[in-house]
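Minutes, methods subgroup
Present: GH (chair), OT, SY

1. OT presented the first of two proteins processed in the latest run. Sequence and C-alpha cells recorded below as shown on screen.
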Amino acid sequence: MRHPEFPLSKELIYLNHAAVAPWPKRTSIAVSQFAQQNTLYGSSFYLDWLKKETELRTQLQALLNAPSVADIALVKNTSEALSFVAYGLNWQAGDNIVSSNEEFPSNRIVWQSLADKGVEFREADLSSNHSPEEALFALVDKQTRLITISSIQFASGIRLDIDKIGQFCKDKNLLFCIDAIQSLGAVQFDVQKCQADFVMADGHKWMFGPEGLGVFYTSPAAREKLKLTQYGWHMMKSTHNYENKPWDIHPTAQRFECGSPNMLGIHAFSTSLSLLLEIGMETVEQKVLANANYLINAIKSHPCLQLLTSEARHLQSGIVLFKHSKMTKEALYAHLQKNHVVCAMRGEGIRFSAHFYNSTEELDKAIALIPQT
C-alpha cells in the first residue's frame, strides 16, 4: 500500500532519491495554492510569503542544528554555494585543497578551476585505505588550507565520519567544507558536532524539494573569510530601503543572496521539509538505513548480483550500488527502466536509493525483476 504522502503512479518503484525525489502530496497542494493565490491576487499576500521564507530558514536551521537562523542562506544549488567558497577565499600560490577521488563534479571542478591561482587540488583514494578519513588526512601538509568532502559519496554511498574529519580540521587549523546533498533529509546531520565551516545542499534529493533551491550554511567566523562575488539589493543590510546610499553588507548569511527570492520554490521546499520534521530525522534515518540494509542482503542473495557498496555498517547510507555478473550496467539499467524501476546508473553499476516510505514489498519486487541468468 502506498504511503499517503507519495501517491506515485501504480506501476512505478521509485528508488532514485539520491538523484531527484518525487514531491510529497502536501507539496503539490501547497504549490497549487500558491499559484492560485498569485493568479487571483498578484503580490497582495507578499508579507505572508516573507513569513514562509522565514519559516524555511528556521526549518533548515533545525535540520542542520545550526546555532542560528542567521547562519542559513537560501541559494540556487550546491554548485553555487561551493563557488561562493572557492572564489570567496583569499588563496595564495602554493596552497592546496584536500578532497577525494569520488566527488560529484560540483565538488571537484570548482576547486580544480583554481589551478591558475597556483592552488593544488588533491584527491584521496577512499577505497585504498582501511579508513577513508585517514586517506584524506595523509594528503594534508603545511600548505593545506581546506578539506572539502561529500558527507556521503553519490556513487559508492560511502558515509564518512565527518565528526572525525571536523576535529582533525580544528586541530590543524584547516577550513572544513561539506557537500551534504546525500545526507540532508536521509540521515541526521549536526553542523555543530562536526564543526563544519561550510555546508551546502540542494533540496531536490532526499529533502523532497524542488530543483533550483538549496541551503548554504556558514559559521560566523568562516563567513567573514569570504569576499562576496555577487551583489544586489537582497544582500544589503537595509534590504528594503531601496534608496540606501551608501549601503552595507547584510550581517547574516543573507549576504550570499544577491537578488529576489524564489518564492514558489520556498513554498514547495518548506512544505516538503515539514513532512521530514514531523516524522523526525531519527526515525527517517532508521527507516532509510533499514531499507538500505534490506537491499544489501537481497543483493547478496541474488545469484548474479555483486554488491559494490561497503557492508561495513559505519560506512552505510541510503545509497546501495551493485552490478550484474552477466549484464552490462547499461543493459541492466535499460531493463529496470523498462520495468518501471526508477533508479540510476552510477560508477561501476546500478544505484538504488530508497527513502523512508519505500516498503520492503517494493524492494523485493525490484530485486525480483533483475534477471538471474
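2. SY then presented the second protein from the same run.
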Amino acid sequence: MSTDFQKARADLGARLRELRVSGPDGPLTGPQLAQRLGWAHSKIYKLENGRQTASAADLQAWAEGTGQPDAAEELRARLRSLESQVRSWRRQLASGHKPVQDDITAEHARAKRLRIWQNSLITGMLQTPDYARHVFTRYAELMRSPRDTEDAVWARVQRQQGLYDPARRYEILMWEGALRARIVPPAVLAAQLDRLLGVIGLDTVELGIIPFTAALRIPPGNGFWMYDERLVIVEDWHAELWLDDADTLATYTRVWETLGEAAVFGHRARQVIHDARRTLDL
C-alpha cells in the first residue's frame, strides 16, 4: 500500500475525529459514537487512526451520528480522492468483472501509447477468449465475486480491436514464465501461444519476451500498464493502484526501460514462444 494512500487515509481519520469532538451537542467519546451508530467501538478508532478504510455508508452514518449531516458530501469527496489511487478488488468486483473491464476500456480509448508489463500470465490485450474465460473463472473463485464471466470475456475481446487501430501503439513486455504458467489447460495454452506468434509483426504492436536465461538488473515485479505519460495502473492481490503523480510515472518509466533491456523481439521472441509451446503435453 502506498505511503500517499496511507497519508490520505490518516487525513480522513483525522477529519472524522474532528467531527466527533466538535459536534453541535458537544464532543462524543468513541464508545458513545459507537453506541449511537450500532458499531463496535474498535471500528471508531480504526477509522480515526487510518487503520481501516471507511465506506461511503460509514461516512454518511458518521456525519449524521455526530450531528453534522452536511459534512457527508465532503467526507465522500475525500473517499473518492483516496479511492482514485487505490481501488480494492473487493469493492471493484462487487458487481462483477465486466464493470472493471469497462473502466479499463475507457482508459485504453484515451491512450495513444500503451506500455504493458506482465510477469505471471498472458496480458489481457492478447488473450484468446478461452484463455480469458479460464482466467476470469479463477479470479472469481479467488475473490468470491459475481460470475459474469461471458460478459467480462466479451468486454476484454472487444477491447482488443484497438490492436488494429493505426493511431495506437502497444508496447508489450512479458516474462517467459507468463508463457508457461499452467493456469489453463494445455490445449488452451497452446492456442494462446499460437495467438502470440500471430501478433508478432503487427504494425501497432511491439512484443518483447524476457527469457528465463536473460541477465536482469531488477526483479520481474508486479504487472503494470502505462497509459501515455499520464497514468500507470499496478495490479496487486488486494487492489489496483491508479497512480498519476510525476515522480511515480518517472519511476515506472525507468522500470519499463530497464526490463526492456533484457527482452528479445522478433524472431528471437518467436523462438522463446516456440520453446514454451513444445513443453506442452498435447
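Chair's summary of item 2: The two ends are 42 Å apart (CA to CA).
Next meeting: continue with the remaining queue.
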